[in-house]
Specification:
By secondary structure, the chain is an all-alpha fold. The chain has helices at residues 4-24, 31-55, 63-83, 90-113. It contains 4 helices and no strands. Helix 1 packs across helix 2, helix 2 packs across helix 3 (63-83) and helix 3 runs antiparallel to helix 4. This is DUF3054 family protein.
């Protein structure tokens, strides 16, 4: 599997996270709004990919790689939201961590079950 597909899946799932979050808070389902909501988390995802690519031996399908991407996505995303004076309530951090973990680790677990 090329590195493009795992990166694409991570980006799409972060966008889904942002879209579902906006929808559940009645903030609208417009592309610009989804992009604004997702951007801090996408920066975190990119940082996680860079860090994991440098420090880990395993490829992007591994759970270790995914865990580092999740941690970076949440941490960087929340820091950027705080800097931009957006919400970073503890409950949001918990929900974001759980949902992004399910999304970004979930596809990796499924991929492990599929023949390569």
């Amino acid at each position: 599997m090329s590195r493009l597909l795992p990166a694409f899946l991570d980006v799409v799932l972060v966008l889904v996270f942002a879209a579902v979050g906006r929808r559940s808070h009645a903030e609208g389902f417009d592309l610009a709004g989804i992009a604004r909501t997702a951007l801090p988390f996408l920066v975190g995802t990119a940082a996680g990919w860079l860090l994991a690519s440098i420090v880990l031996d395993g490829g992007p399908r591994t759970l270790g790689f995914g865990a580092l991407v999740v941690l970076s996505t949440v941490a960087v995303g929340m820091v950027l939201r705080a800097v931009a004076a957006q919400g970073v309530a503890v409950s949001f951090v918990v929900v974001a961590t759980v949902v992004l973990s399910v999304f970004l680790l979930g596809w990796r677990l499924v991929a492990r079950l599929l023949p390569v």
